[in-house]
Specification:
Elements lengths: L7 E3 L5 E3 L2 E7 H12 L6 H24 L4 H14 L3 E9 L2 E9 H10 L9 H14 L7 E7 L8 E7 L31 H9 L11 E3 L2 E7 H16 L4 H24 L2 H6 L7 H12 L6 E8 L2 E7 L2 H10 L8 H14 L12 H8 L6 E6 L8 E6 L1
Antiparallel strand pairs: 1-2, 2-3, 3-9, 4-5, 5-7, 6-7, 8-9, 10-11, 11-13, 12-13
Helix pairs in contact: 1-4, 1-8, 2-3, 2-5, 2-7, 3-5, 6-10, 7-8, 7-11, 8-12
Length: about 400
């Protein structure tokens, strides 16, 4: 299958860029829980933030990709937008009924329309394709040389509510809304990253080499089923924008701590489903499990895999059955925060915090090495256990530290 997408470049610290936009892997369960969290408090205006963040990232990617291919004809730019949408695992998108003044965009398949239903187990009462709406608006604006906020978008038919095909209506705004500008890779720096922990029996280089041979692009339906979940190779700047705007808006209502706790909880869900799916997959059994001589090696092995996800470079600094200290260089949450808001005055890497503690919960109280079924009962058993691990953010690159550090203890 041949697709015209943006150029892929591999940066230091495991970062991957497509036409200058940093990408990170996340699964449908994290996308579901994160969006559910963002939309839980009423009155914050987060639906608009989600659409705007998607439009901004899509506009930046597609504008750059079209320039790389020497394309200016709107139909060709939109063809690139469709190919990028499918390659990144978002589904398939059809712009044939859209033009300069707006129109209808169809999504025959959609990660947010279909795969969030799988994570939730039921149809939704309202459309969940907010990302698709923003992507469509940003793509059309890029095709006609307009700013990212040139079009308003709404779902007319939603697969998340049971429709066979998604339909999005785009309408031209008289005055384009001022969206934030996606900061690209952000203040990425060449940093001195230490080698892996000396107690590890896992060859991280061999793990990364094996993973690099996997096809992690969308299939013919534009979806990316892997490791028992459905992945997206998503925009890091999208995740950062929606998460940090949520924290700031919740902070304005006096619920800052609650907002941060909810984002850590979304990180738990990410760890449970993505890490759990990976550690019970045939790929794990073939590549990583044979290297695991101790229980601790399951932690080291999963950290090696994490370093292929675009999240930055994780290093185990300290590990026992009751404590894990992870240091992260160039973590995408810190980089995004610095690019969007400048220096932070507190810890911002909430996904990483949930991931570190979630990993320990899977390995120790959860005994993931016994291949349990990843269901709600198992989640409740380990994440509500008296033996569960909880995280604390100790250092943060966004706040000026050399690296981000998370401590998980029980």
């Amino acid at each position: 299958m041949t697709r015209r997408t943006g150029s892929i470049s591999q940066e230091a610290h495991g970062r991957t860029l497509m036409s200058g936009e940093p990408l990170v892997f996340h699964c449908n369960h994290y996308n579901y829980w994160l969006q559910k969290t963002l939309l839980l408090p009423e009155g914050l205006g987060m639906r608009g933030v989600i659409r705007d963040a998607a439009a901004s990232a899509a506009h930046a990617l597609i504008s750059a990709a079209a320039k790389e291919h020497g394309v200016t004809e709107p139909s060709e730019v939109l063809a690139i937008a469709s190919d990028c949408f499918a390659a990144l695992g978002f589904g398939t998108i059809d712009f044939s009924q859209a033009a300069d003044g707006g129109g209808t965009v169809r999504t025959p398949t959609s990660h947010y329309g279909q795969c969030l239903r799988i994570a939730s187990g039921a149809d939704f009462a309202e459309p969940q394709e907010l990302f698709d709406q923003g992507y469509a608006a940003g793509a059309l604006a890029a095709a006609y040389g307009k700013p990212a906020g040139a079009y308003a978008a709404r779902s007319e038919a939603s697969q998340s509510m049971g429709a066979e095909v998604g339909e999005i209506t785009l309408s031209s705004r008289d005055v384009p809304e001022g969206f934030f500008v996606a900061p690209g890779r952000g203040p990425h720096a060449q940093l001195e990253v230490p080698s892996t922990h000396p107690s590890s029996n896992v060859d991280e280089a061999a793990v990364l080499q094996a993973l690099s041979g996997l096809d992690l692009s969308g299939n013919e339906e534009g979806l990316l089923p892997r490791f028992g979940v459905i992945l997206t190779n998503h925009f890091a700047n999208f995740y950062d924008r929606v998460s940090f705007e949520f924290v700031q808006r919740m902070g304005g209502t006096g619920m800052l701590d609650m907002a941060e706790e909810l984002l850590v909880e979304a990180g738990y869900r990410c760890a449970f489903n993505t890490f759990g799916g990976i550690m019970t997959s045939p790929e794990w059994d073939a590549v990583v499990k044979p290297q695991c001589k101790t229980t601790e090696d399951w932690v080291h092995g999963m950290v090696a895999v994490i370093n292929a996800l675009g999240w930055g470079v994780w290093r185990v600094h300290e590990l026992s059955s009751s404590r894990l200290v992870v240091r992260i260089w160039d973590d995408y949450e810190s980089t995004g925060y610095l690019g969007m808001y400048g220096k932070a005055d507190r810890f911002v890497s909430h996904l990483a915090a949930g991931g570190v503690a979630g990993l320990m919960n899977l390995v120790y109280p959860g005994r993931i090495d016994e291949s349990p079924t990843l269901d709600g009962e198992y989640y409740a058993r380990i994440f509500e256990s008296p033996e569960r691990f909880t995280p604390q953010g100790v250092k943060c690159m966004a706040a000026g530290d050399e690296y981000t550090e998370v401590v998980a203890e029980r």
